[in-house]
Amino acid sequence: MRARMDWKFLLGLELDDPGFDFSVLSDFRARLIGHGLEEQALDLVLARCSELGLLRAGGRQRTDSTHVLAAVRTLNRMEFVGETLRAALEALAAAAPAWLSSLVTADWAKRYGTPIDSYRFPKGDNVRQEWAEQVGRDGFTILEGVHAPGAPAWLREVPAVQVLRRAWVEQYHHDGEGVRRRKGKDLPPGRRRLSSPYDPDARYSVKRGSG
Questions:
Q1: Beta bridge partners of 150
Q2: Cα–Cα dist 72/56, whole Å
Q3: Residue-wise pLDDT tens digits, 94-110
C-alpha cells in the first residue's frame, strides 16, 4: 500500500501517506468470514457497482454472488485444512519432536513450514485438488501415527491433534480407494462444521435475511 501510487490516487490519499500494514486486510477478512457476512458484503459491492453502471446485463445471467462464493469457499476450505494440519504439526513438534521427526519427511517443511495462504496456492483446479488430497493424506499419516500401538497415548490428547481428527472426519473420506475430499451435501452443515483450527467454536454461517 505504501508504494502503490495508483491505490493512493484511487482512495484520495496524500502521496506521502504511510498506508497500513497488510495484516489489516487479512484480519478483516477473517472477521468477515467468522461472522458469516462474506456473501452479504459481496452482494452489497455488486449492487453498488450495478447502480454506478459498472455492471450491465448481457442477456440472462446470474445476479447473485453464489458462483463467486463457491470458488472462495473452496479456497477457504483449502486454507482451513492446511492450517489445521500445520497447527497440529507445530504442537507435536513442541511436545514430541523426536517422535514427529521419525514420522515426517523433509518435503513436509516446504508444505507446512509457513502459514497457509491462498495467495501461494498452486494454479488450476486439478493441481489444487491434488494439493488438498495430499494434505488429507498427510493428516491421516499423523492421525494413524498418534494411534499406533507404540505411540505415547497422550499424543492423541493434544488439543490440536483432536481438532485435526475432527476436521478430517468432516472434510475427507478415507477408504480402500484412498483419500478424497468431501463435497456438497456430503459435508456437515456450516453451522456444525469447524472453520478455524484455533477457535473450535467458530462456524461459517449466513445471517437470516442476508442471503
A1: none
A2: 23
A3: 999 999 999 999 899 98
